[in-house]
Design goal:
mainly beta; Ubiquitin-like (UB roll); 55% strand
Length: 572
C-alpha cells in the first residue's frame, strides 16, 4: 500500500473528537432582530469576535495543541475593522454591509461572520459578530511508515491575523530541509496582505516576499501588488526507467503594478500598468536524482535544451468585471458558507519587452465566469499567456491552465460534482513537463507514476453524503469519486500519450461544525495506468477561498505571474 499522508496534527483527532463544545457564541446568539439597511444613519459599530468552541473532550486537543506552543487567542477587533465599509456617521448601505460581511468571511482565520443592523433612537447600530477557525496548523509527510517532513504553525498568532509556519524535512542522501513562512492579512491597519516564505529544501531553495492590496470590493478605488522571488530549483523530469533527471535553474522573478477603478453603470473597469522581470539560468546538463544522491548521466535529451532567459517588460493592464456574490452553503467545505462570484470577470496584460537581444510581446489573460441557478453552481476560470518574438517572428509560445466545475446540491448534505482541470504548454522557453504526481493537480491513486507530457487534463466526478454536527460537534461525510487524467506528449521531454483512471472512497470531516477547513482521507485504486496499488492520502485545508490554484509545474514555466494575480482580484 502506498501512503501519501499529510495532516493536521493537533486537530485531526479533534475533528472527530467526542464531546465537543456547545456552539453558543456571539455569531450564533442574537438578542435583537436585524432590520434592513436602507439609508439610516450609522450611529455605532460594535465588533464581537468569538473564539471557536473549546469544551468537552475538545479541551484535550486544545491541550495537545498548546503542548506544541500553538495557543489560541481570539481575533482582535482591530484586525477586523479594516474590512468594514461602514463606520459611525455613514449612511447605511446594504451593498456595503454585505460586502463587509463577505470580506470578513473570506479571512482564513474566520469561520463565520455576520453583520446585523439593529435599530437605535438616532439611526442604526451595526453589530459585527465573528467566530474564529481553530488556528493551529500542522502537517506530516511519510516515507513508508516513517515521518519524512513535519511543520507546525498558527493561522492567527495572538489574534492579530498573522500566520506563522515552520517546518523541517529529512534529506536522507541530501541535506536536511527547513522552511519558515509568515503572512499578515491586515498589515498596518489596512486590508493589506504581506507574505514572506523562505525554504532550504533538501534539493534547492527559495525566498519570496510580496505585498498586495487586493481588489476585494467594487467600492475600492483600485488595487496594487509587488512580488519578488529568488530560487535555486531542480525541476524533475520523469522517465519511464523510473530515475528522474533534475535540471538546476537559478532564477529571480519580480513584478509590480497597480490598477485604478472606473465605473460604467454596474460594470467596473480596471486600468493600470505592470512591470515584470525574469532572470533564469538553466544548467547546461542534468543530473540523475537518486536515493543515494546526484549521479551523472549520459542522457543528452536535456543537454543545452534550454537557454538563459533575461527579460524586462512593462505593459498595460485592462480589466472588466460585472459580478455579484451569492452565499452558498456546502460546496468546497461540508457545510460552511462560501461566497460564489457570479457574472463575468476578465483582465489582460499587454507587455512589450526585450528578452536577450530580441524584442518581443507578452500577452496574458485571466477570465472567469460564474453562475448560481436553483440547486446548481457553475464556475470556470482560465489563465493564459502567449509570447511572440517581434525581431524575427517565429512561432508563438503558449502556456494555459484553468478549471471548470459544476456543483449540484441533490438534497440536504448531498452534493454531486463534476470537475475538469486543464494545463498545457507549447514551445515554452522554460522547462515544462506535466506529471501525474504534481501535488496541486491532485490526481489520486498515482503516487509513483513515471508518466508525463506537455498537456494534462484531469476530470473528476464525486458524490458526497454529509451530516452537520454528526459526531458531537464535528461534521462528517463520505464520498465516492473517480479521477480520469489524460496526458499528451507534445514537446515535453520524455512525454507520453496516455489516459489513466482511479476510483475510490473518501472519509470527510470538519471541526467545529460548519468550519471552512475540510479534512479528507482518500482511498484510491488505479483501474488503468502505470501504477497498480492502493493509495491512502490524507489532506486538510480551506478550499473555499480560491476556485483555482495553478499547479507549480505549470507556474514555473511562465514568463510572468499568473494573470489573475496581476489584478490582485479573487477568483472563486
Amino acid at each position: 500500500m502506498s501512503l501519501a499522508r499529510r495532516g493536521i496534527l493537533a486537530l485531526v483527532a479533534g475533528c472527530l473528537a467526542r464531546g465537543a463544545a456547545a456552539q453558543g457564541s456571539p455569531a450564533d446568539t442574537v438578542g435583537r432582530a436585524s432590520i434592513p439597511c436602507n439609508g439610516q444613519r450609522v450611529v455605532a459599530v460594535v465588533i464581537n469576535p468569538g473564539r471557536p468552541p473549546f469544551s468537552g473532550n475538545a479541551q484535550r486537543w486544545r491541550a495537545l495543541a498548546r503542548s506544541f506552543g500553538l495557543h489560541h487567542a481570539t481575533t482582535d477587533a482591530s484586525v477586523l475593522e479594516p474590512f468594514l465599509l461602514l463606520q459611525p456617521g455613514d449612511v447605511c448601505n446594504e451593498q456595503r454591509r454585505s460586502d463587509s460581511e463577505r470580506m470578513l468571511r473570506d479571512l482564513p482565520f474566520i469561520a463565520r461572520a455576520s453583520i446585523l443592523v439593529l435599530p437605535d433612537s438616532d439611526g442604526v447600530e451595526l453589530e459585527v459578530n465573528t467566530i474564529d477557525e481553530i488556528p493551529a496548523l500542522g502537517s506530516v509527510a511519510f516515507r513508508g511508515l516513517g515521518p519524512r517532513a513535519l511543520s507546525l504553525g498558527s493561522d492567527n498568532i495572538g489574534g492579530e491575523g498573522v500566520r506563522l509556519l515552520a517546518g523541517a524535512e529529512r534529506g536522507y542522501a541530501y541535506r536536511t530541509g527547513f522552511r519558515a513562512a509568515f503572512a499578515s492579512y491586515a498589515a498596518f491597519g489596512m486590508p493589506l496582505t504581506t507574505e514572506i516564505d523562505a525554504a532550504r529544501d533538501p534539493i534547492g531553495s527559495h525566498v519570496e516576499a510580496d505585498a498586495t492590496h487586493p481588489f476585494l470590493t467594487n467600492f475600492q478605488r483600485g488595487a496594487w501588488n509587488a512580488i519578488y522571488r529568488m530560487e535555486d530549483v531542480y525541476p524533475r523530469f520523469r522517465r519511464s526507467t523510473g530515475d528522474d533527471l533534475g535540471l538546476e535553474i537559478k532564477q529571480q522573478r519580480w513584478s509590480a503594478g497597480a490598477v485604478s477603478r472606473a465605473n460604467v453603470g454596474s460594470t467596473v473597469f480596471l486600468l493600470g500598468a505592470e512591470v515584470v522581470g525574469l532572470h533564469a539560468d538553466p544548467a547546461a546538463a542534468p543530473v540523475v536524482i537518486t536515493d543515494s544522491g546526484f549521479v551523472g548521466t549520459t542522457d543528452s535529451t536535456l543537454v543545452g535544451r534550454y537557454a538563459p532567459v533575461h527579460s524586462v517588460r512593462a505593459g498595460a493592464l485592462i480589466g472588466v468585471r460585472h459580478v455579484n456574490y451569492a452565499p452558498v452553503d456546502g460546496l468546497d467545505a461540508l457545510f460552511a458558507r462560501q461566497d460564489v462570484m457570479t457574472g463575468v470577470q476578465s483582465g489582460t496584460l499587454i507587455a512589450p519587452g526585450r528578452t536577450g537581444s530580441d524584442d518581443d510581446l507578452l500577452i496574458s489573460n485571466s477570465s472567469y465566469l460564474g453562475a448560481v441557478f436553483g440547486r446548481s453552481v457553475m464556475m470556470a476560470d482560465a489563465e493564459s499567456e502567449a509570447r511572440r518574438t517581434l525581431t524575427h517572428g517565429g512561432p508563438i509560445s503558449i502556456i494555459s491552465s484553468g478549471r471548470a466545475a459544476w456543483y449540484y446540491r441533490v438534497g440536504s448534505g448531498q452534493l454531486f460534482m463534476l470537475d475538469d482541470e486543464f494545463s498545457g504548454g507549447a514551445r515554452t522557453q522554460l522547462p515544462i513537463q506535466l506529471t501525474l504526481t504534481e501535488r496541486q493537480a491532485d490526481i489520486r491513486g498515482f503516487t509513483g507514476s513515471n508518466m508525463a507530457g506537455a498537456v494534462r487534463n484531469v476530470a473528476r466526478a464525486e458524490y458526497r453524503w454529509a451530516r452537520p454536527a454528526a459526531i458531537h460537534g464535528a461534521d462528517a461525510g463520505l464520498a465516492l469519486f473517480t479521477d480520469v487524467a489524460t496526458l499528451a506528449a507534445g514537446s515535453a521531454p520524455f512525454g507520453t500519450n496516455a489516459t489513466v483512471q482511479s476510483v475510490g472512497i473518501s472519509v470527510l470531516g470538519a471541526y467545529p461544525t460548519r468550519s471552512k477547513r475540510l479534512y479528507r482521507v482518500d482511498i484510491a485504486y488505479p483501474l488503468r495506468g502505470d501504477v497498480h496499488r492502493l493509495e491512502v492520502r490524507f489532506t486538510a485545508g480551506n478550499r473555499t477561498n480560491a476556485f483555482w490554484r495553478e499547479p507549480y509545474d505549470v507556474k514555473r514555466a511562465r514568463l510572468g505571474p499568473v494573470p489573475s494575480s496581476l489584478f490582485s482580484w479573487p477568483v472563486r
